[in-house]
Write a structure and sequence with these properties.
There is one protein chain. By secondary structure, the protein is mainly α. The protein has one domain. 70% of the residues lie in helices and 0% in strands. The chain has helices at 2-16, 20-27, 33-42, 48-60, 64-87, 93-96, 120-135, 139-158, 164-188, 190-198. α1 runs antiparallel to α9, α3 (33-42) packs across α8 and α5 (64-87) packs across α9.
């Protein structure tokens, strides 16, 4: 989890020394046709449908422990994100910036939603990545999962959907919820978790 800690420390430091608008513009500065296409599709890894798809895959593979971990982490992180969105008044970049202060919008991208904090896609991506990393026996693969989640978070800024603080909040929610679900399952269903650790077919084994 050193990758996650380093990510949090770097982003927290960045947020401390930049303004809301300045930090966004710094990370949203560079665009290219290739990156536009890549992030346009890649950001969907943080969509809830992708997590549900993986849950179904693991159920078919009879990896019920991992499927339950991902499902609970996804549902709880999504619920918490929606509660915060409804509670915290925080406009998205397109509404925050004035007409005279244009931001880059990727062609064909639908800018949905009004509330900005936290980033739901980022929360889902980190909940999924943390869940997979916790079950992975191969540490390098666990790191890869988390790096992929970080890229989902960046995609939300690149696509002008969220501010850096929204991504930070979503990442914290996803990681903490996934950890809590893992601890809960380990405490109340130890046989299942013990069997999962011995199962060499778990991703990352």
């Amino acid at each position: 989890m050193a990758v996650v800690l380093a990510f949090f420390l770097i982003l927290a430091g960045f947020l401390l020394f930049t303004s809301r608008s300045g930090g966004f513009k710094d990370l949203n500065l560079y665009h290219s046709p290739g990156l536009n296409s890549f992030f346009f599709y890649y950001t969907n890894l943080g969509d809830g449908l992708f997590s549900i798809f993986l849950v179904l895959i693991f159920l078919l593979l009879r990896k019920f422990d991992l499927a339950l971990q991902i499902l609970l982490a996804f549902l709880l992180s999504g619920l918490l994100s929606q509660i915060l969105k409804a509670t915290i008044i925080s406009p998205r970049p397109r509404d925050f910036f004035s007409v005279n202060d244009q931001i880059y919008i990727v062609d064909g991208l639908t800018l949905g939603g009004k509330a900005s904090f936290p980033s739901g896609h980022t929360a889902s991506a980190f909940a999924l990545a943390t869940s997979l990393a916790l079950f992975a026996r191969n540490k390098m693969l666990g790191i890869l999962y988390l790096v992929l989640a970080i890229l989902v978070g960046y995609s939300r800024i690149y696509l002008s959907q969220h501010f850096p603080a929204d991504v930070f909040g979503g990442a914290v929610i996803g990681v903490l919820v996934a950890f809590c679900v893992f601890i809960f399952m380990d405490k109340y269903n130890p046989r299942l978790m013990k069997r999962s650790r011995k199962n060499k077919d778990i991703p990352g084994a």
